[in-house]
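Example complex used in Figure S2.
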Amino acid sequence: MSLRDLRREDFAYAVDIPTRWADSDAYGHVNNVIYLSWFDTAVTRMLYERGVLSLHDCPAIGLCVESRCEYFAPVEFPQVVDARVRIGRMGDKSLRYEVGLFLPGVESPAAAGHFVHVFVDRRTRQPTPLAAASKAALADLVVAGV
Amino acid sequence: MSLRDLRREDFAYAVDIPTRWADSDAYGHVNNVIYLSWFDTAVTRMLYERGVLSLHDCPAIGLCVESRCEYFAPVEFPQVVDARVRIGRMGDKSLRYEVGLFLPGVESPAAAGHFVHVFVDRRTRQPTPLAAASKAALADLVVAGV
Amino acid sequence: MSLRDLRREDFAYAVDIPTRWADSDAYGHVNNVIYLSWFDTAVTRMLYERGVLSLHDCPAIGLCVESRCEYFAPVEFPQVVDARVRIGRMGDKSLRYEVGLFLPGVESPAAAGHFVHVFVDRRTRQPTPLAAASKAALADLVVAGV
Amino acid sequence: MSLRDLRREDFAYAVDIPTRWADSDAYGHVNNVIYLSWFDTAVTRMLYERGVLSLHDCPAIGLCVESRCEYFAPVEFPQVVDARVRIGRMGDKSLRYEVGLFLPGVESPAAAGHFVHVFVDRRTRQPTPLAAASKAALADLVVAGV
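Predicted assembly (584 residues):
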């Protein structure tokens, strides 16, 4: 199955991300780099909402070790992107998120890809296991066999 | 009256802008530059909604010739900013927008400032008058004597 | 061969990209998204220098259809990144760039990945062949069998 | 004297900042917000070079409380901006930087403005005096009567 075939219902988490004027580049549509910022934002927002990360008092932080995006359709200001997230692999110290970006009224994604976090201790930056409570809080997002 | 004394009710236009993870800088709160991106986004979104600008078929574009911001309080991911806009001066070929950024549950602004657009022809980049229809579409946002 | 094994001498094009203060995120190092912006900048700068693209009078533009990055080491302000580019596949209407980002005094890359441009007509946005002159201008960057 | 009359020789500190592809917005030139990012970068780089700030072990950090920019000319990728900094007011706990952005071969600035840092303790975020050594390290940048 190709990324282009992903649909909204393939993802259990969703958040709306409005475009910003400065997101566009000289070609008049949103620059490819911004899509990755939306991946980053959707994933981190989900982790905050589920209590896996927090800005100040969380001993672990998630460092991005890999990101990938395929671009299928342009996005233009002032569109609002429906960013969807699922977890394709839950490891002991890492998570692989799969993300789809959808535009209003369009069934297939404008872009899709993945993003891998390794969890490390905030101070030592050494890999650290995900807490059992964190794994439980994310369980409904995990998909099998992707 | 200082910018810090501005309140939500001083502005006739409002739009929510969610923070993005990459908005923060190494001090852990949103970087000062991003606030200006929110000004830019709130103003341009308002101009699109009112039909003053559009991405493709509009003969005029608004070029920023001046911006200024005072910062009163930090903003942190994943807060959502309530961006408010009014027009402090409507010239023949320019608009001075006044913008306040408000955080949930806080009466005084996290930041406030202004932003001046000169309208120019999209091709020649020479100043061009605002259409009467545009002025009418913005009339309710204009405040007196600021 | 893994991306981590790439070395400066594996790439024929190089450009220095200084970090900016706002590149860092709340974890104190450069946000993952910015690395992709460096890919984008190094590649586009190379295309401008070789005369393949230009801002105003070029009939073709390059649209990013795929990007991927592996992150090996953090980058911190005010470090200057040595961005290196080569071409892993030269198609009739597309180019696959391979990019490595190197920090001063370090042999292995801080990050590496690829980036695919499809060339389209600026107006119709339909795929368009790369000119023979463009292909010739890029020939020294093409590597075999990656 | 207007900001437009500032010249390179009015500033004692200079750093080159290359444009990035994503700096441009849909109008084809660098977005107004990016200029402020260049202010931020030039000032912070200067503070690092002079030993006033550092990423990790510095007890004080500089928070931006005010920024202002006047825009005189467009900047386009891949231009390199010559960013110049001086200090218009050195307070006990704050610095007002004045910044000019110059393009190759052009005498007058493409943009100019200012930026105010209040220095605060990294942990308590309470205002803290600039060390005498910091003031001495910046003395040559201070101009009188602006």
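Residues 38 and 127 of chain C are 25 Å apart (CA to CA). Chain C touches chain B at residues 21-22, 24-26, 28-29, 31, 33-34, 77 (CB under 8 Å).
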